[in-house]
Design brief:
Elements: E1 3-8, H1 12-20, E2 25-31, H2 45-56, E3 60-63, E4 66-70, E5 74-79, E6 82-87, E7 90-93, E8 97-99, H3 102-105, E9 115-117, H4 118-126, E10 135-138, H5 142-154, E11 159-162, E12 177-180, E13 184-189, E14 193-198, E15 203-205, E16 208-211, E17 215-217, H6 222-225, E18 231-233, H7 243-263
Parallel strand pairs: 1-2, 1-7, 2-3, 7-18, 9-16, 10-11, 10-16, 11-12
Antiparallel strand pairs: 4-5, 5-6, 8-17, 13-14, 14-15
Helix pairs in contact: 1-2, 1-7, 4-5
Length: about 260
């Protein structure tokens, strides 16, 4: 009976890990999204090739299921048909990354409504809900570019981009988009955000603030892992993300799993 390794995340990193595991280890890949690909999406050659290679290696993909808890022996997942347990000898968390939050960015000031992570702003825009008509977007990488496109599509009149490290990814070309640099230091506003204050005193007036700068690991099972045994984290935090970086992280995680199981 082969050893089983549970992998949370069916993006390029999780799929690369699955196909890179040594023979004799059976990968089971879990993702809350019903299609593989993660932030890279399903409809591209890289994702299709990665999924095909992982399945050819013997990986089993359980899509549309959310990882809930890992106790070192079983991964509890919740899906459309309820909860079930996946016995495994190790867990790989390849759940991707998220933009930095307000506290992580060090933004002072009050806490008015209208401050959203880019992930939330994109989701709202995709469902037809506009975060703001004159939003400011902090960031210059993947999530910032994605948020600008989603906001414009949802009907934003003007989008002001503040890119602390410059533009790292091409942005949608539109006269409604203004791009600048600077270091955000504080939020202004009472009931709703009214401006973003930059280092040096410059103010960017806005009715919503979209946080899309920097990346941190998105660990949706972190609170239930509690430093559980035989856990490997595979979450590159480079911005912009690249296919090569995801593949390297997945291969490195597979090597770490092999060493863990050899030592067990």
């Amino acid at each position: 009976m082969p050893d089983t390794v549970a992998i949370v995340g069916a993006g390029l990193t999780g799929l690369a890990c699955a196909r890179s595991l040594p023979e004799g280890i059976r990968p089971i890949v879990v993702d809350r999204v019903p299609v593989p690909g993660g932030v890279h999406g399903w409809d591209n050659d890289e994702t299709r090739a990665a999924a095909t290679a992982a399945e050819a290696r013997g990986a089993v993909l359980h899509l549309g299921e959310t990882a809930i808890r890992w106790d070192g022996e079983e991964l509890l997942v919740m899906g459309q048909d309820g909860a079930r347990r996946i016995p495994a000898r190790a867990l790989v968390v390849a759940a991707g990354s998220r933009p930095l939050g307000r506290a992580e960015l060090g933004l002072a000031g009050p806490r008015p409504a209208g401050i959203l992570a880019a992930t939330v702003a994109c989701h709202l825009s995709e469902t037809g809900l506009l975060a703001g008509r004159r939003p400011a977007v902090v960031g210059g990488g993947d999530w910032a570019a994605r948020a600008v496109g989603a906001l414009l599509h949802a009907g934003a009149e003007r989008v002001q981009v503040v890119a602390p490290e410059g533009i790292l990814r091409p942005f949608p070309g539109s006269p409604a988009v203004t791009v600048g640099t600077g270091a955000p230091v504080a939020v202004e506003g009472a009931v709703r955000v009214s401006a973003l204050r930059l280092h040096g005193g410059e103010r960017v007036e806005c009715d919503a603030l979209i946080l899309a700068h920097g990346l941190a690991p998105l660990r949706n099972v972190d609170g239930a892992v509690w430093e559980g045994p035989r856990t490997v984290y595979a979450q590159p935090a480079g911005d912009p993300t690249t296919v090569a970086a995801a593949q390297r992280a997945g291969s490195a995680a597979a090597a770490d799993v092999a060493r863990i199981l050899e030592a067990a």
